[in-house]
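User: For my dataset I need records formatted as: sequence, then structure tokens, nothing else. Please produce one.
Assistant:
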Amino acid sequence: MKKTLIISLLLVVSVFKTYAQDMNSDLLEAIKYNSYPDIVNLINKGANTNIADENGATALMWAIFKSDLKTVKYLVTHGAVVTKKGVIYLDDDKSVYYGSPICIAAGEGKLDILKFLHEDCKIPVDDQEVNPTNPKAPGWTALQWACVNSRPYGVSDFDNPEDIEKNYAKVNEEVVDYLIDNNANLNYNQSEEQNTPLLLAILSGKDNIVQVLLNNDAEVSKRNSDGNTAMHLAAMNSKYAIILQILQKKGDVNVQNNEGYTPSMFCVSATNSNVYDRITTLRILFTAGADFSIKNSKGEDVIKLAELEADSSVVSYVRNPDLDYAVLFLFNREKEVYDYVNSDRFIPNKKYVQDYSLLDVAAIKNKTDLIELLLSKGENINSIGYVGMTPLMNASYYDKQEALETLINHGANVDYQIQEQNYNRGKTALHFAVEEGYLPIAIKLINNDANPNLKDDTGNTPLHYSAEKGFIYITKYLLKSGAKINESSKDGSTPLMLAAENNNLNVVKLLTYNKADLKIKNSNGETVLDIVTENKNAELQRFLVSQKYSLSDIVEWGELDDVVEALKIEQNVNVPDDENWYPIHFAVKSGSEEVLKLLIAKGADINVQEQDGYTPLMLATFNNYFSIVKILVYNHADLSIKNKVGQTVMDMARIYEAGRLIDFFKAPQITPMDLIELGYEDDVIKIITSGIQNINKIYSDSTTLLQTASYFGQTKVVKALISKGADANMIGSGGSAICYAIRKGKYKVVELLADVTDLNLPSTEGWRPLHYAAKSGNFKMMKLLISKGANINAQQQGGYTPLMIAAKNNNTLSVKLLIYNHADASLKNLEGNTALDLAMSNNSTETVKFLKNPQISPFDLLNIGYLDEVLKQVNENVIDVNLKNENDGLIVKDYILFAINQKINDCIENNDTTKLNAFTALLEKQLENVVYTASVVEGDHPAYNKGLRGTYYILSYGDFTIDGNNELFSYYKTIINVNKSLTLMKEGKISSYSFEPGRIGISIKTVNVPIEEKRKLIDDYKYWKQKNK
């Protein structure tokens, strides 16, 4: 009986043990197949979470390898030990393996699991894996694995393997970044072959990882067990781009390994790269000082090895090596480059390393003198180089403002789009500037007519990139410059969607404030609200539903008018946000001087500190905004306040090596010149009136107060200075005061100075005021100067007359004005060119056509401002009002209406009521027999996209379709009472008045007219329509 019982018990134990073993095996299998429900079920039934296979690989290791973070967390919370190590073999001969949990996470690119193991489980980032062949030897670290794997071993070749490689390269880069940020040892080389992460990345062909490591100062001189350095391994595979980076880190081109091989020897011996890459690599090494005569342990030099193993062209190169002049810049050997360009040996447009031309390199190095020299020697300004980029694109990409400006001034194509089949296809210089966040570059390009709406190969405009990256000020400038806010990319994404997808709340606010459409759907059928909901961003979700803007929001990215409007609603300018930033902080951050001055005038606390203790003055110092600093100091900002790390503004200026600010903070004084530059006109007038000791003093920028006030168009200041004896004929670096006003288009100041200036007084380069006006194409100013006695045929130092300058700059109207006033077209400059020659050399078709047959038509007279002369000739029957212009089909009558309209707008701008009444009467007379249709449009209208907000009224022939809802408005013909519109203008309720043939447009000011009054205006128009039905 007892014996039977014992046997029974043993059988039960045996069965239970077998059952438990089976359950543990099942757990490993469930993990390998990533079956989460089975994993949970087996663990709940008692399966051992620390079970290991025959190689010691634990359930946790297999979960990291095969499964996801959810499974890993479940195992750890149910007792899995994170420090246990074993081996997971990755190939049949067991030569490749994982040996620790954290190495698996890094090697497989599972960043979320890596973070969990390091941050929650406290596994060190440099934890070494086990080595199954030599347990006492050090193993690899997570960083080494992250530098080797091109993609997870668990991923099969379904779909497109290239896409998998590309996507995983990005993932692995993020893993490497994370490990480095958490202080992983960049130079660890204790494993058997002693390869550092950098050496492994080069060997594995992970160029993107190599760049990350070098950017984080990985040592390039470290050797592996064969004595090879990073330079050797890069040369072995002809990786010349990597070699260039290593050279910048002071890599040795003549370093020898254990067998005496140099990098150059490795390069000629390698047969796994093409001949072009090998010769390019050898040329770089030679330019950097490689000695081809060094011998290895077998007594072989580079030439001998090339003869034994290399292609004939490689042999030919090492026998007669030449320099790569583009590479010389890396070693501060610029003189050799200049000497070469000035020599007879120079070959224009030759391509060097990575298809760079010398013009590309000059742009990248910001060498404007070399750019000028190369262009004079025949270099193509729009040459195509590395990845299809032009020199202008390189200047844009590398933030080289002076180079960019020089190239633009010489005619570089600002809208060229990359044609090569690569990831940059379709991009322009503006795309690169925006992507990199270079606002000054973007501004320069747009100011030189770069198109902000061109799309790259993905269908993205620059606005898409600025929204995606969260660049709020670039976004603001693009919108201001006509960027289309609702444009869709190839996948249907709008800028608003990209901003929301990347959680850029401020950009979302800016875009919605500017009427971005929330209803547009992408190719997946999602609206922006769907995207935000899917991303579970509650803050963005709340905003998109409410669309409420704080004063700080509008201060940060709004225009001055927007802030003025916002202050009518929010009177308190000292309300902080969640991070204790006040509106004045945002005004400083945005660099808006006018908004800052407005907030100070409204009582903003000038010394208020945000959560890190930064005052507005500290923010201005941090951003090196010198003008903003002066405004704050002028308004009594405290220089002694310290932030939370104990820094004053002087400390910050020294840290950032801001020389101008350091000098200013030593003796913070605001001069009258500062007040003019900062726009404090009333304050400077008080100082002028009370008496300035030397009113004609020349300041540090080589200008006088009068010249600077003229430049900024400060009419009241100019009047005050003249009344106190300021000399209008003093010559500064840019000529006399009137020349400064002309260049900036300040007509009122020009009008004022014309009576007190010698208009034929030359600048240091012989330029007269009329030369500057001709260059700018401002024929209104030219007409004024001519009427005041300016010499129309004056020549500057190069022999250029105003007519030549106008012709060279393709200012056809200016050319016509000068010819009408008897400019001599036969005069030649010092190079022997006439105005016609200059127009022809610049392909100025219209100007050339006119100069070949310089006849002034009635249309020309009206275009250049001679309305009175035309009306006189019409009354004398010299001109037929029905004469048709061959170019546009309009008649003289239409042109007269255009000209009168311009006069009306000038009167409104100058508040000239007398002339306004006269031109009103003239317009009424001209419109006596013209019949119009009245169309009233409220809300969305194309004019809105041009910056006109509020209700917009169109009075036009026929029908008018509203953009936005495509609703068709049809109205009956009626006579429009022009005086009604002009009365509204005088009352300040209409901001502009425009005429096209058959159309009068009126823009109602949003800020001055209550909505009730706008509606009444609409009703008035509707009444007129009904009355004349």
